[in-house]
Specification:
The protein is an alpha+beta fold. It has ten helices and five strands. A five-stranded mixed β-sheet has the order 3-2-1-4-5. It is globular and about 55 Å long.
Length: 176
């Protein structure tokens, strides 16, 4: 007796959509697991992974001097629960990943940060709905939020995927 896989059309049924919604609501958050991983990653490795993309995404705004007001300041971005998180500062014309707390902390869910990065929703709405919260120096946090809202930037996941896929270490496959 052979089982057939469901057709693609049936995967878009309301039942599947409701099931996915229930799973998203009741499955435990991945934040504790991500926090445990985050605590084990050394800061220099985080710097290698995050600084170049951040400075590339915001290169035009940095060149235009829009980040000059943030010189020597630190802002922390955290997923609900305190970990994982990243503290970002601006020194000598570059965004830097640093260790330690920030003067202001912007905290929210992974979904809220993704919505913000993909610009699917106005940042003000995310804050008014309390999906993102600013703590500490709220003036600094609001200034950053307004800057991110005014700068034309777009995270291109497909571009980043293509860049990492085309790396030489990914092209060489062992011959068996």
């Amino acid at each position: 007796m052979a089982f057939s896989l469901p057709s693609i059309a049936s995967l878009n049924s309301p039942l599947i959509g409701q099931t996915v919604s229930v799973l998203r609501e009741y499955l435990p958050s991945p934040a504790p697991m991500l926090g445990a991983i985050d605590r084990r990653i050394p800061v220099p490795l985080k710097q290698l992974a995050a600084e170049a993309p951040l400075n590339g995404i915001f290169a035009q705004a940095i060149d235009d001097g829009e980040f000059d007001d943030f010189e020597g300041r630190r802002i922390r971005l955290e997923v609900n629960g305190g970990q994982p998180g990243i503290t970002i500062g601006f020194w000598a014309g570059r965004l830097r990943v640093i260790d330690g707390p920030g003067e202001a902390t912007i905290r929210g869910s992974l979904t809220a940060f993704r919505t913000l990065a993909e610009r699917r929703q106005d940042p003000d709405q995310l804050f008014f709905q309390r999906r993102l919260v600013i703590e500490g120096d709220t003036e600094l946090g609001l200034h950053l939020k307004n800057l991110l809202d005014s700068v034309e930037w777009k995270v291109k996941i497909d571009y980043l995927y293509a860049r990492f896929k085309s790396r030489p270490w990914r092209q060489s496959k062992p011959q068996i």
